[in-house]
Design a protein that fits this description.
CATH superfamily of the largest domain in chain B: Aspartate/ornithine carbamoyltransferase
Distance between the termini of chain B: 10 Å
Structural class of chain B: alpha/beta
CATH topology of the domain at 31-171 in chain C: Rossmann fold
CATH architecture of the largest domain in chain B: 3-Layer(aba) Sandwich
Strand order of the largest sheet of chain B: 7-6-5-8-9
Number of strands of chain B: 9
Order of helices and strands of chain C: EHEHEEHEEEHE
CATH class of the largest domain in chain B: Alpha Beta
Order of helices and strands of chain B: HEHEHEHEHEHEEEHHHEHH
Shape of chain B: globular
Oligomer: heterotrimer
CATH architecture of the domain at 31-171 in chain C: 3-Layer(aba) Sandwich
Largest interface: A-B, 26 and 27 residues
Chains: A alpha/beta (435), B alpha/beta (331), C alpha/beta (202)
Strand content of chain C: 15-25%
Radius of gyration of chain B: 19 Å
Largest sheet of chain C: 5 strands, parallel
CATH class of the domain at 31-171 in chain C: Alpha Beta
Number of helices of chain B: 11
Number of domains of chain B: 2
Radius of gyration of chain C: 17 Å
Number of helices of chain C: 4
Shape of chain C: globular
Bound molecules: zinc ion
Chain lengths: 435, 331, 202
């Protein structure tokens, strides 16, 4: 059937020479110049970069519980528009994804939506309470096949509990993704602790509060021989600690968000809560350090930490506002702006950090993170790296508008996204999908 | 002057001197049989208080009323409006009432900035103390009080008549001001550091290291951990209120140790130069940061600060909304 | 004759094109004689200086009041001090301009039951004097208020008249009367008309 067959013309795979890509029944069937069209639909990709479908290891979809901010459907639509074919749904929903029942519900909602595969992340502790392990094995054994566990939003601060979690998930090759925030050092914290916080009279959030946990967890993971993943690392010190841990051969991976690659705490000066995020925006020196870390592989992946919030949670005083920013639809542009256009990463390395590595860390199935090669599942993104666009908050599939990039000009635009050979986005527009 | 007064840093040296000079003239009004000027007749000043502060509210209310403004007191404290949303909704209500000036006190740092920047009101926003950020009118009244004592015998600027308080037309150039206490949580300290620096004074902030903010080395001030080292050269000493709950959060071990190291008692006061004055923004913890005999001594200008507060706030309201209130500034 | 006032004074009047003609109407000697005459008229009308309080309206009314006080003191053989009455906060045109700096108010004596003579340089619309009457009313209750001005140029907008006038000076609205005094302007005393003559291009 022709709806299942596409020939993509003159795409630059990983930024290389233009070539055609043929897709049939969800699989890449041929790659080469001037492929025969046959019954297939032609997609002109002249000048576009082809990347493997991107995988986000850190997405807040808000369903169940805060369907006013985001649903699995709208969140995965935003993901598709951003070039993602798989997102990992964080566990801090209401109810918390701490049982097989909840993770299966989220997984099923993702399948029904059809825009993007949704891989649930399970909570480490019951209700994110930080005191008792959730049924990690049951979630691993469920239909959702959970391998990543995280209390994200909260830190597993109890050292013994963290040790047990790291040990326990070895039984099913799981990984604990830690939100590194020492709670006592960040009581009431509102922004990065530094000269700006002192000036603004906002309670500071010291880099040490992140670094202390990153260091402790690296040592614990090494001690028990487990895998550790550090969520949204944001400081120079954290980069150095992870670099040191990797130099020891420890199984530690780390992620950085797009916003920590670009934005700094200077932006807080106007007290606009659009810039309020956890971990907080840091200094220009930290931004330089996370870029270096991402370039040299110390930081394995970019993950969005897409965190939708309704307007009223941001249109208020800074200290009353919610933490978080949306990011699925701007992630690749920010990575291009900060890493590719600066010469720090090639498109091949972008594919590694936004597709292959996150899929590997989460052990996700469905052919995600595979290279663009014959016989591989057709998860493909076509990206116009030459385009520029001014970010307009209302131009989003997300239910929320809390983008920190409003009015900014960013490079690049996702033109098409194929999920298992089905276009979820074509000509930059969401497509009807039936699942 | 800028349209709003959100931070003491919004004021240039000339702006600040103008506020002080205007306040000096207005101070005379308080001594007249009729303590009222028609200047803000028909203007509406809203006192929007999200945090209790009877002293500050009364001071602003007296200032606005002496200028014949219509005053609306809006206390949002304890009302049932949910967090956050209330600021926007309240602001829209005030906008509908046609507020020309909104005097806002808030427990969150930056709330006045939000009010001014978010376009929820057209009125001039006056920060009457926001969280642990700033309290610019307090700094202005402190500077006013210091100037009237420390610059009184300085020759006035050529052409300037001798005012009811000294130092007309003058700043605080070269004066040494020591501010002591919980700088980290003090909006008074932040505003004073900025304003006194703008006025040419040398500011020394004295506190235990736990109560100085990170990044203070970038402020235009000196810092010291020792009060005793900062007394001999001080022309004015300002004691900040230290809250007992800081002790429970381990900022210092005990009230007794704090007052021994950082409290102003008679012995320390006697080491000040003869002309030096003692200020406190109030309310005082007698026995903690200041002893009763220092607070009640001849060097203490604490009561005067309260009187001057009304004149300074009249000056601020007059300069912000007394003229045309479109955005054209002074040339 | 080339007096300093015939030189276009760009620094003092930055917005006025320097090409506008300047006609001196009173020189220093004439101003002095006018003030002397006013002094005598005030004394004559009020049967001496005992009940009189002189209040100048800033800016130039203040030095004028001081000069009249000095002349009055010479005649009466005792020191007579004048005061100043700032009317800024009572003006009816506050909202037309950004807030102005205040001038100093100072009364040499209680005004209750006294004869207050307000002194100003130029009387035109009468609005400044209206504001001065309001300001004065809040300082006390004088028995009478009189007005002395150096120049009355007409164009009244309120029912106000001067009791003592240095010179009546019919002018066009397109013209501007410029008063320069040694104390306030750091130059020789002079009154001039600046601007195009009646009917000239505006
Ligand atoms: Zn997190």
């Amino acid at each position: 059937m022709s709806e299942r067959q596409y020939v993509i013309r003159r795409a630059r795979i990983l930024g290389g020479e233009p070539t055609d890509i043929a897709i049939a029944d969800g699989v890449i069937t041929a790659i080469g110049p001037d492929l025969p069209l046959g019954d297939a639909t032609e997609v002109d990709a002249t000048g576009l970069v082809a990347l493997p479908g991107m995988v986000d290891l850190h997405t807040h979809l808000r369903e169940p519980g805060r369907e006013d901010a985001e649903t699995v459907l709208t969140g995965t639509q935003a993901a598709a528009r951003g070039g993602f074919t798989c997102v990992h749904a964080m566990a801090n929903t209401d109810p918390v994804a701490d049982t097989a029942g909840v993770v299966e519900q989220v997984w099923r909602l993702g399948r029904e939506a059809g825009y993007c595969d949704v891989q649930p992340i399970g909570a480490v502790t019951v209700g994110l309470g930080g005191t008792q392990l959730a049924e990690l094995g049951a979630m691993a054994d469920s239909a959702a096949d959970v391998r990543v566990f995280s209390d994200d939003g909260k830190c597993v601060s109890d050292a013994v509990l963290m040790r047990r979690a790291l040990e326990y998930v070895k039984a099913f090759d799981g990984v604990v993704a830690q939100h590194a925030q020492e709670p006592r050092l960040t009581e009431g914290a509102q922004m990065n602790e530094g000269l700006v916080s002192g000036e603004l009279g906002l309670t500071g959030w010291p880099a040490a509060a992140e670094e202390a946990i990153v260091a402790r967890d690296c040592v614990l993971a090494a001690h028990v021989g487990s895998r550790l993943h550090v969520c949204h690392l944001s400081t120079r010190g954290s980069v150095e600690i992870v670099r040191w841990a990797k130099s020891k051969g420890w199984d530690v991976t780390a992620e950085v968000t797009p916003h920590h690659l670009l934005l700094t705490d200077d932006l807080v000066r106007g007290y606009d809560p659009i810039y309020k995020v956890n971990p907080p925006l840091r200094t220009a020196d930290d931004v330089a350090a996370v870029r270096e870390g991402l370039a040299d592989g110390t930081i394995d992946i970019v993950a969005t930490d897409h965190a939708p919030h309704p307007m009223e949670d941001k249109e208020c005083e800074w200290s009353a506002a919610a933490f978080g920013m949306i990011g699925l639809e701007t992630a690749l542009s920010v990575v291009q702006h900060t890493m590719v256009d600066t010469g720090l990463l090639t498109w091949e390395q972008v594919a590694e950090r936004l597709s292959a590595a996150p899929a590997r860390i989460s052990r996700v199935g469905g052919g995600h993170g595979r290279p663009l090669a014959v016989g591989e599942p057709a998860h493909v993104v076509l990206y116009d790296a030459e385009a520029t666009r001014t970010i307009v908050p209302a131009d989003t599939a997300s239910l929320s508008r809390n983008t920190p990039y409003a009015g900014r000009e960013l490079p690049g635009r996702v033109v098409a996204t194929f999920l298992r050979g089905i276009p979820t986005v074509l000509d930059g527009q969401l497509q009807e999908v039936s699942s | 002057m800028k349209k709003h007064l959100l931070s003491a840093g919004d004021l240039t040296r000339d702006d600040a001197v103008r506020v002080l000079d205007t306040a000096a003239e207005l101070l005379g009004v308080a001594q007249r049989p009729i303590k009222k000027l028609p200047t803000l007749r028909g203007r509406t000043v809203v006192n929007l208080f999200f945090e209790d502060s009877t002293r500050t509210r009364i001071s602003f209310e007296a200032a606005a009323k002496r200028l014949s403004a219509d005053v609306i007191n809006f206390s949002a404290k304890g009302s049932s409006v949910s967090k956050g949303e209330s600021l926007k909704d309240t602001a829209l209500t005030l906008q509908a009432m046609g507020a020309d000036a909104v005097v806002i006190r808030h427990h969150f740092s930056g709330a006045p900035h939000r009010l001014a920047a978010a376009g929820w009101t057209n009125g001039a926003v006056v920060n009457a103390g926001d969280g642990t950020h700033e309290h610019p009118t307090q700094a202005l009244l402190d500077a006013f009080t210091m100037r009237s004592h420390l610059m009184a015998d300085a020759a006035p600027e050529p052409g300037a008549p001798a005012g009811p308080s000294g130092g007309m037309g003058r700043d605080l150039a070269g004066k040494n001001i020591t501010i002591v206490g919980d700088v980290l949580h003090s909006r008074v300290a932040r505003s004073n550091a900025l304003l006194l620096h703008t006025l040419g004074a040398n500011v020394t902030l004295v506190a235990p290291p736990t109560l100085l903010p990170v990044g203070i080395d970038t402020w235009p001030v000196e810092t010291s951990y020792s009060l005793d080292d900062s007394l001999e050269k001080a022309d004015a000493v300002m004691m900040l209120r230290v809250q007992h709950e800081r002790m429970n959060a381990s900022y210092f071990p005990s009230a007794r140790e704090y007052s021994r190291r950082y409290g102003l008692d008679t012995t320390r006061m006697n080491r000040l130069p003869d002309h030096a004055i003692v200020l406190h923004p109030g309310p005082m913890n007698r026995g903690m940061e200041i002893t009763a005999d220092v607070a009640d001594s001849g060097r203490s200008v604490i009561v005067e600060q309260v009187t001057n507060g009304v004149a300074v706030r009249m000056a601020v309201l007059y300069l912000l909304v007394g003229g045309s209130t479109n955005d054209e500034g002074e040339a | 004759m080339a007096t300093p006032d015939n030189v276009p004074d760009a620094a003092a009047d930055p917005v006025r094109p320097t090409a506008d003609p300047v006609r001196t109407v009173l020189d220093a000697g004439e101003i002095s004689r006018a003030l002397t005459r006013i002094t005598h008229e005030i004394l004559e009308r009020n049967h001496g200086s005992a009940e009189v309080v002189l209040l100048g309206i800033p800016k130039r009314g203040v030095p004028l009041a001081r000069r009249i006080a000095r002349r009055m003191g010479e005649v009466e053989g005792r020191e007579i001090r004048s005061g100043a009455l700032d009317v800024t906060m009572y003006r009816d045109d506050l909202r037309l301009k950004p807030a102005r700096a205040l001038e100093h108010t100072e009364t040499p004596d209680d005004v209750d039951d006294k004869i207050v003579v307000l002194v100003d340089d130029v009387l035109m619309s009468g609005r400044t004097i209206r504001a001065a009457l309001d300001a004065l009313g809040e300082l006390g209750r004088p028995r009478a208020v009189q007005l002395a001005v150096l120049i009355d140029r007409g164009h009244r907008e309120l029912p106000i008249r001067a009791d003592f006038v240095g010179k009546n000076l019919p002018t066009a609205l397109t013209e501007k009367v410029r008063v320069r005094l040694g104390e306030s302007d750091d130059t020789e005393d002079a009154v001039a008309i600046v601007g195009p003559a009646t009917g000239g291009a505006a």
